[in-house]
Design brief:
alpha+beta; Nuclear Transport Factor 2, Chain: A; 2 domains; three-stranded antiparallel sheet; 31% strand; globular
């Protein structure tokens, strides 16, 4: 009989996620921000908590496993010399300022998600620029215009408590940011249950605060396979 300790299927904090990956909490937070590490958030009154599924984490690891590169002569004097003009790839370094901005941006999106779950446009409205727009497809039909269309839809749709979200990508460019959010389980008066939505938000930093200026989306109906170029 094996004495191996069974790994939990759900990791319930940054600390557990980091321990599972055998990395620091700072590293796994950076991986979520820059490399799509699948981490989810639960909305609470005071502070959100994070969780992840071990199966998704391990799948993410396998997709990013590559063959080892040839040794770098700068690190291994015994290896063949590298031509002087050959570029050397360096892993990006994320400062505490970058991670701070990353957290502020995720809070803006979390506020949007909280409004969607509660069916309250007033709750999500502070996340958006007053002149924000939206554009996208639902079941192959194009929708575009003022973000006010979204607010009216949210109020009419009502609460959607089973929404689950995942940050697929966050990129920050000084005063501009792009967030790719994957959503499933949207329900309510108007939504079709079990729909999946890919959303991309453009954010702008105004007077020190981040606001969403544009929301693009592709709403996949149940049974409809999302198109991908990957």
């Amino acid at each position: 009989m094996s004495n191996a300790v069974k790994q939990p299927e759900t990791l319930e904090s940054w600390k557990q996620i980091a321990a599972h990956l055998e990395r620091s909490e700072r590293t796994v937070r950076r991986w979520e921000a820059a490399e799509g590490l699948p981490v989810y958030r639960r909305k609470h009154q005071k502070q959100d908590t994070v969780f992840a599924y071990t199966g998704e984490i391990e799948h993410w690891q396998r997709r990013r496993t590559r063959k080892l590169a040839p040794p770098d002569p700068a690190l291994d004097p015994g290896s063949p010399a590298r031509p002087a003009d050959t570029p050397v790839a360096r892993a990006p370094l994320f400062s505490s300022a970058y991670l701070s901005e990353h957290d502020r941006i995720t809070r803006v999106i979390d506020n949007y998600i909280a409004g969607a779950r509660a069916g309250s446009a007033d709750l999500m409205r502070p996340s958006f620029h007053p002149q924000a727009t939206l554009a996208g497809y639902c079941g192959g039909v194009e929708y575009s215009g003022s973000i006010e269309h979204l607010f009216r839809w949210i109020d009419q749709n009502g609460p959607a408590p089973r929404i689950q979200t995942r940050f697929a990508r966050i990129e920050i460019f000084k005063t501009m940011a792009v967030v790719h959010l994957e959503v499933q389980g949207w329900s309510g008066n108007l939504a079709i249950n079990d729909s999946r939505i890919a959303e991309v938000f453009t954010l702008l930093k105004r007077n020190g605060d981040w606001q969403i200026t544009q929301k693009a989306f592709d709403w996949h109906l149940p049974g409809e396979e999302p198109d991908t170029l990957l």
